[in-house]
Design goal:
The chain has about 425 residues and is of the alpha/beta class. The protein is built from 18 helices and 13 strands. Strand 4, helix 9 and strand 5 form a beta-alpha-beta unit. The radius of gyration is 21 Å and the shape is globular. The structure holds iron/sulfur cluster.
Length: about 425
């Protein structure tokens, strides 16, 4: 049975209600269990459990140290392309956003990877919008093969594919696949995804299973917090993680904790998740899944990231750019807008503001780049980052907290 079938049978509204009404006795009992059920997890993310967050944090901290030691692994996203055929209301790369777009050539991808390698990274996540014309499987395969020569651990966060299409990517050296469901609420999902293949909720939900069948040995999942009720999303992704641990057991599982950030299109989060909620959720995931990697990106501000490290985070991005060419300026000379799948020179687009000059330096684009300067000269980023520290600064902070920053993925090192 696929996860879609299991998901359709989950009593999610009832679990959310149980979470909201759990009392301290229920929380204490759930916390003491060696193996937690979905109901126990619902108790751990309850308002009642929030009142004893310190106790939850201590347990989460102990478990993380037992299972992972005092180690934080670092990775960086490398954006290949911001072309996309989908319209996702919350994403700067959405098809209908009049942003500056580019797809990096193989040489440009190598340049970006070398810049990351010079900063210390040996674990890179290749990210691209979903566009079969600009980002075909053969292109992804070539990128993975080119990078795998220099970077031991290459993961992908790209448009979902069929299992046979994933196989050449695994053969080329990709070991991890990350796919956010965005929201596990079908109604909200339908409202957020108004055009493109991403409208198919079930197809996306089954992506980790197809990736596993193709041989990926690291799977990453998550909702994007800020679209539907965070407890509903958390219980859903916990059910998803539980399914993958039972059915895709040879793979290492990571769960990310992304909250919505500002992006092109000015989308505002539909729901609120506080910093304290986020901290509670880190602890609940750790107690439910002691061996799962918990991932925190530069979407969160530096102070909060530093505070969450001891609670249970095991993997962090650092110094991230969310635009293609963001580390070296690669691809600047090819910037364009894309209308109905066709490249349009800047200044010639129907979207171009009145009086817009055709020079890139003068191009006006909506909010969404990482800075005013980069907006004028680089492709548009997917979202604004909140922790702008350099990788070296993040590594130093990790050391100050008594942890060892690890740049290379240990799992890949053991298995290659
Ligand atoms: S979230 Fe992904 S699929 Fe949606 S517009 Fe952005 S890049 Fe495209």
């Amino acid at each position: 049975m696929s996860f879609v079938a299991e998901f359709n049978l989950l009593p999610l509204p009832s679990l959310v209600r149980k979470s909201l009404t759990a009392d301290t006795t229920a929380v204490r009992e759930s916390q003491a269990k060696p193996r937690l059920s979905l109901m126990d997890f619902a108790h751990l993310i309850s308002p009642a459990a929030a009142e004893s967050l310190e106790v939850l944090s201590r347990r989460s901290h102990q478990l993380t140290q037992q299972r992972f030691g005092k180690v934080i692994r670092l990775f960086a996203p490398l954006y290949l392309s911001n072309e996309c055929v989908n319209n996702c209301q919350y994403c700067g790369f959405s098809r209908d956003n009049p942003i500056l777009r580019v797809t990096l050539s193989l040489d440009e991808v190598r340049r970006e990877a070398r810049a990351l390698k010079e900063q210390g990274f040996r674990n890179v996540l290749l990210v691209a919008g979903e566009h079969p014309k600009f980002v075909p499987v053969a292109y992804l395969e070539n990128c993975v093969r080119a990078l795998h020569e220099e970077i031991p651990s290459v993961s992908l966060e790209v448009g979902p594919l069929e299992t046979p299409d994933y196989r050449p990517l695994v053969a080329a050296g990709a070991d991890g696949l990350v796919v956010y469901q965005e929201t596990y609420d079908r109604d909200v999902y339908a409202q957020m995804h108004t055009a493109g293949p991403k409208r198919n909720f079930d197809w996306r939900l089954e992506t980790p299973e197809r990736a596993y069948a193709a041989g990926f040995r690291r799977l990453g999942i998550s909702p994007l917090y800020g679209l539907a009720d965070w407890r509903y999303e958390a219980i859903s992704v916990a059910a998803h993680a539980d399914y993958l641990l039972r059915n895709c057991w040879k793979a290492q599982l990571t769960i990310s904790l992304p909250r919505l950030r500002p992006c092109a299109g000015e989308f505002q989060p539909l729901t609120h998740m506080s910093d304290r909620d986020l901290a509670q959720l880190v602890c609940a995931f750790r107690l439910m899944f002691p061996d799962a990697g918990l991932v925190l990106s530069t979407r969160e501000p530096s102070k909060l990231r530093d505070g969450l490290i001891p609670l249970g985070i095991t993997l962090m991005s650092a110094g991230s750019h969310t635009e293609p060419g963001g580390y070296t300026g690669a691809g600047r000379e090819k910037l364009h807008q894309t209308v109905r799948g066709r490249i349009v020179e800047l200044g010639a687009s129907e979207w171009a503001p009145v009086g817009q000059a055709s020079s890139r330096a003068d191009a006006t684009i909506p909010h969404g780049g990482s800075s005013a300067a980069s907006r004028a000269t680089n492709a548009t980023g997917q979202f604004d980052i909140a922790d702008a520290r350099s990788p070296g600064e993040v590594a130093e902070l990790i050391r100050q907290l008594g942890y060892e920053p690890v740049w290379k993925d240990w799992d890949a090192a053991l298995t290659t």
